[in-house]
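Before surveying the methods themselves, we first show a specimen of the format, giving the amino acid sequence and backbone structure tokens:

:::
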Amino acid sequence: MQKNNNEEMFTQACKLTNLADHLRLVEMPLDYVALNRDNKDNGAVHYFLNEELDSVQNNIINIQNQIQEISDVLVDLYNDNDKNEEEKLQESTKNASLFESLEVEKDDVR
């Protein structure tokens, strides 16, 4: 079970890396607009605002949604791990109690 969680965490980490790369691509048009603004090229800035801004915004929303999905998966993995640790602790306590009860019976026999 632990190996599967580690594999899933690695998969989610790779997704985050891909999203970081995607975000860099989304940033490129913004850099271009900033450069055009600095060069006082209002035509290019207006073109971006009228034609490309929605695409950038949609990409950012998509990235946000994917990050939330990854976060949800990681929280589920964390909760599963906590649940497994709790079950192990309960089993260990149960085994210790059983062992203690067997020792008491052994002492009673003597």
